[in-house]
């Protein structure tokens, strides 16, 4: 018994000694954080979205303060106002930021009756996509399990009655977190003043795509032929719109009227029309 008490006493004394040593070392070896880092971090929106390329707002604040080569304009959600403030604090020159918002390239409703199989696993698009590319007949379409909604730290996405994500443009910061989270690449970032977009993501040939979805782009190329400004290309059986050319040159959207499946639609804010589903 006496031996046990002695051992415990010795261990206690050793623990106290090591505790003092660690406390002394922590005080002596502590690195003082540049107070400017805290000032920059306070300016940032705290979304921790990673759009800047760093692991959160604090990491970006440290990088932009300590590394002269890191731009003050990397905070996409903060837009121009935050970039200017960070530039003022760090003594750097802000760069021009191109605003952007999220856009959903799928108009095919989530309909259990027309799916390949009944999925009852983890309610996550990435998980569902592992099993035969998900239950949806279109292997390129939205799976509707809301992974993008969960990833949006700004509350700019929600699922509509059809099971598809809808973007709240007033809340969307263009951080791109939803875009990177989608295993189907259904979400892309576009200029906020873009005119039209393709509500389809399928790369199947026309007959196959149309059989699966009535709203599918069939890659007929009619929109490309009719566009006088060369703003539309057909890539992998899918129409792709160059929004910058469209914004700069187009004043009459002939593609909207001529698309046989109405896969090309006007953005909600477009002067050429409004599509509620967008």
Could you explain how this protein is built, in words?
Helix 2 packs across helix 3 (57-66) and helix 2 packs antiparallel against helix 4 (79-90). The protein has 11 helices and 8 strands. The strands form 4 sheets. Strands 1-4 form a two-stranded antiparallel ribbon. It has a two-stranded antiparallel sheet with strand order 2-3. The model is unreliable at 274-278 (pLDDT under 50). The longest helix is centred in the first third of the chain and has 28 residues, at 2-29. The protein is of the alpha+beta class and 278 residues long. It folds into 3 domains: 35-90, Electron transport complex subunit B, putative Fe-S cluster (3-methyladenine DNA Glycosylase II, Chain A, domain 3, Orthogonal Bundle); 100-192, Alpha-Beta Plaits (2-Layer Sandwich); 194-278, Alpha-Beta Plaits, CATH 3.30.70.
Entry keywords:
3-methyladenine DNA Glycosylase II, Chain A, domain 3; two-stranded antiparallel sheet; Alpha-Beta Plaits; disordered C terminus; 278 residues; 11 helices; alpha+beta; single chain; 3 domains
For the report, how would you describe the main beta sheet?
2 strands, antiparallel
As a percent range, the share of helical residues equals 25-40%
Unreliable spans? 274-278
Sequence of secondary-structure elements: HHHHEHHEEHEEHHEEHHE
Counted by DSSP, the helix tally is: 11
Span between termini: 78 Å
Round the mean pLDDT to the nearest integer and report it: 88
Q: Output the radius of gyration.
A: 26 Å
Q: Please state how the strands of the largest beta sheet are arranged side by side.
A: 1-4
> What general form does the structure show?
flat
| Count of folded domains | 3
| Top CATH class of the largest domain | Alpha Beta
């Amino acid at each position: 018994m006496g031996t046990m008490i002695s051992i415990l006493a010795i261990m206690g004394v050793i623990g106290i000694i090591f505790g003092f040593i660690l406390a002394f070392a922590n005080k002596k070896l502590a690195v003082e954080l540049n107070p400017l880092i805290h000032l920059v971090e306070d300016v940032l929106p705290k979304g921790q979205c990673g759009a800047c390329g760093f692991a959160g707002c604090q990491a970006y604040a440290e990088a932009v303060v300590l590394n002269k080569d890191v731009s003050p304009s990397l905070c996409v959600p903060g837009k121009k106002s935050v970039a200017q403030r960070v530039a003022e604090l760090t003594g750097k020159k802000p760069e021009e930021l191109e605003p952007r918002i999220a856009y959903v390239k799928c108009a095919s409703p989530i309909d259990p009756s027309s799916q390949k199989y009944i999925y009852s696993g983890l309610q996550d698009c990435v998980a569902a996509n592992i099993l035969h590319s998900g239950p949806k007949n279109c292997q390129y379409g939205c799976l509707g399990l809301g992974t993008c909604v969960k990833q949006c730290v700004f509350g700019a996405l929600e699922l509509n009655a059809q099971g598809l994500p809808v973007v709240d443009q007033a809340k969307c910061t263009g951080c791109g977190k939803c875009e990177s989270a989608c295993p189907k690449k259904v979400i892309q970032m576009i200029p906020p003043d873009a005119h039209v977009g393709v509500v389809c993501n399928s790369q199947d040939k026309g007959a196959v795509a149309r059989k699966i979805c009535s709203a599918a782009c069939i890659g007929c190329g009619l929109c490309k032929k009719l566009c006088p400004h060369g703003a539309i290309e057909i890539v992998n059986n899918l129409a792709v719109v160059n929004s910058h050319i469209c914004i700069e040159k187009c004043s009459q959207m002939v593609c909207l009227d001529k698309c046989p499946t109405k896969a090309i639609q006007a953005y909600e804010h477009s002067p050429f029309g409004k599509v509620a589903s967008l």
